[in-house]
TrEMBL record:
Highest taxon, organism lineage: Bacteria
Membrane topology: Multi-pass membrane protein
SUPFAM superfamilies: MFS general substrate transporter
Signal peptide residue numbers: none
Key words of the record: Membrane, Transmembrane, Transmembrane helix, Transport
Organism: Gracilibacillus caseinilyticus
Domain named Major facilitator superfamily (MFS) profile: residues: 12-405
Pfam family, one: MFS_1
Entries under InterPro entries matching the protein: MFS (IPR011701), MFS_dom (IPR020846), MFS_trans_sf (IPR036259), MFS_Transporter (IPR051788)
Lineage: Bacteria, Bacillati, Bacillota, Bacilli, Bacillales
PROSITE patterns, A to Z: MFS
Family: Belongs to the major facilitator superfamily.
Protein name: MFS transporter
Length: 411
C-alpha cells in the first residue's frame, strides 16, 4: 500500500472512530439529564416521549437529505457542517427556557446526529471492503466508548458549581457538545473517497429496494434493534430512579456499565460475526438482549445488573446488520444505507412515542394504590416493550436468514 494511500486510510480511520466517539457522547448524555429536565419543566412521561419522538424526526429528516448533500458538496464539507451544527445545538440547549425552545434545540442536535450517521456510514462502507463485520463493529466500539463515559461524566458535571450556581443539565450539554468541534481537524486533513456511481444507478437501486422484501425485513429488524438500544439509553436511568428508588448518580453508573458491556461486545465480537455469519449472529445477540432486559423487570432490583449485561447483546446488532446490508447490496451501497436509515428513523419516531405513551397510559389506569406505584407499573410496562423489541429483531432476522438461505446467499 503506497504511503499516501496508507496515510489517507489512517486519517479516515481517525475521522470515523472520532466521529463515532462524539456521536456516542452526544446521544447518551441525555440519560442523567432527562429526569432533571422532566422535573424542572414539569413534563409528563408522554410529553417526554414526544420530545424524543420529535428528536427522532429531526434525525430522520437529516437522513433524507444527507446523501444528496454529500453528492452535491462532498463528504468533507458535509462533515464539517455536521460537527459545527452539533456544537451550536449545545449553545441553544443552554439558552432554552421552556419546552418549546428545548424541542427546537434538541431538534437541531438530532439534525446533526442524522447527518453524522449517514456520513460515517457511507465513509465506512467505502473504506471497509474487507473484514466488514470486524471493522464496523470496531468503529461502533467508539460509539460505545463515548456512550459509556457520557452518563457518568454528565451526571458529575451537572453537579459542578460556577459562580455559586450549579451547572445543571443546560451547562452540561453546552460543554459536552462543544467537543464536537474537535473532529473537524482530522476532517480538514483527510481526503475522502467518493462513490463512483452515476445518479441514475442510485435511483434505480432505490426503486429496487422499495420492492425488495429482504430490504424491508432489514428495516424492521434494525428498527427493533435500535429501539432496544435507544430505549435503554433514554429510559434506564428514569426506570431505576422511579421503580427501584435509585439516585441519579447510581442509576447513571448502571447505564454506563450497560454501555461498557455494549462497547466491549463491539470490540470483541466483530470477528465472530464474520465467521459465524451476520444474520445468525444478530439472532443470538437479539435474544440475549431481550431475555436479559426482561428478567430484572420481574425479578426485582437485586438483578438490576442484568440490565447492564444486556449490553453484550444490544451492542453488536446495529454494526452487524450494517455489515449484512453492505454485503447484500454491494452495488448502490449509498442508496441502501440511506433507504435503511431513513426508514429506521420513521420507525424510531413511532417507537419513541409508543414507549412514552405506554408508560403514561398504564400509569393513568391506576393499577397501583398510589400515583407513585402506578407510575412504577407504567415504567415497567414501557420497559417490557423495549425488551420485546429485541425479540422482534431476532424474529425478523431469522426470516432474513431463511430467505437468504433459500436463495443460496447466506450472510
Amino acid at each position: 500500500m503506497p504511503f499516501k494511500t496508507k496515510t489517507t486510510y489512517y486519517m479516515l480511520l481517525f475521522v470515523i472512530f472520532g466521529g463515532y466517539l462524539i456521536f456516542g457522547v452526544s446521544e447518551n448524555i441525555k440519560g442523567p439529564a432527562l429526569p432533571e429536565m422532566q422535573s424542572e419543566l414539569v413534563l409528563s412521561d408522554g410529553t417526554l416521549g414526544l420530545l424524543l419522538a420529535i428528536n427522532s424526526f429531526g434525525f430522520l429528516l437529516a437522513c433524507t437529505y444527507s446523501s444528496w448533500l454529500i453528492a452535491k458538496i462532498g463528504t468533507k464539507v458535509t462533515s464539517i457542517l455536521t460537527f459545527l451544527l452539533m456544537a451550536i445545538s449545545g449553545v441553544c440547549i443552554f439558552y432554552s427556557t421552556n419546552f418549546a425552545s428545548l424541542v427546537g434545540a434538541y431538534f437541531l442536535l438530532y439534525i446533526g446526529n442524522g447527518m453524522l450517521e449517514i456520513s460515517l456510514a457511507i465513509i465506512a462502507a467505502r473504506l471497509f471492503t474487507k473484514n466488514t463485520g470486524t471493522m464496523l463493529n470496531l468503529s461502533h466500539f467508539f460509539y460505545g466508548l463515548g456512550s459509556t463515559v457520557a452518563p457518568i461524566i454528565a451526571a458529575q458535571m451537572m453537579g459542578w458549581e460556577w459562580n455559586a450556581t450549579e451547572l445543571g443539565w443546560r451547562g452540561m450539554y453546552m460543554i459536552m457538545l462543544a467537543l464536537s468541534v474537535l473532529p473537524i481537524i482530522p476532517v480538514i486533513l483527510s481526503k475522502f473517497p467518493e462513490e463512483e456511481t452515476e445518479e441514475t444507478e442510485d435511483q434505480t437501486s432505490f426503486k429496487k429496494l422499495m420492492k425488495d422484501p429482504i430490504a424491508w425485513l432489514i428495516v424492521f429488524a434494525l428498527t427493533m434493534g435500535v429501539t432496544t438500544e435507544l430505549g435503554i439509553a433514554a429510559w434506564l436511568v428514569n426506570y431505576l430512579v422511579k421503580v427501584s428508588d435509585w439516585g441519579i448518580s447510581a442509576a447513571s453508573s448502571m447505564l454506563s456499565i450497560f454501555f461498557f458491556s455494549f462497547m466491549l461486545a463491539r470490540l470483541l465480537l466483530g470477528p465472530v460475526t464474520d465467521k459465524f455469519g451476520y444474520a445468525r449472529s444478530i439472532i443470538v445477540f437479539s435474544i440475549f438482549a431481550g431475555v436479559f432486559s426482561l428478567i430484572p423487570i420481574f425479578a426485582g432490583g437485586s438483578t438490576a445488573i442484568l440490565f447492564a449485561i444486556a449490553g453484550f447483546g444490544v451492542g453488536p446488532i446495529y454494526p452487524t446488520m450494517m455489515a449484512l446490508l453492505a454485503k447484500k447490496y454491494t452495488k448502490g451501497t449509498d442508496s441502501a444505507i440511506t433507504f435503511t436509515v431513513v426508514m429506521v428513523g420513521i420507525g424510531g419516531v413511532i417507537t419513541n412515542l409508543l414507549i412514552g405513551y405506554i408508560i403514561e397510559g398504564v400509569t393513568q389506569l391506576s393499577f397501583g394504590t398510589t400515583l407513585k406505584e402506578s407510575n412504577q407499573i407504567g415504567m415497567q410496562a414501557g420497559y417490557v416493550f423495549i425488551a420485546i423489541t429485541a425479540i422482534f429483531c431476532a424474529w425478523a432476522t431469522y426470516e432474513i436468514h431463511r430467505r437468504l438461505k433459500k436463495a443460496g446467499n447466506v450472510l
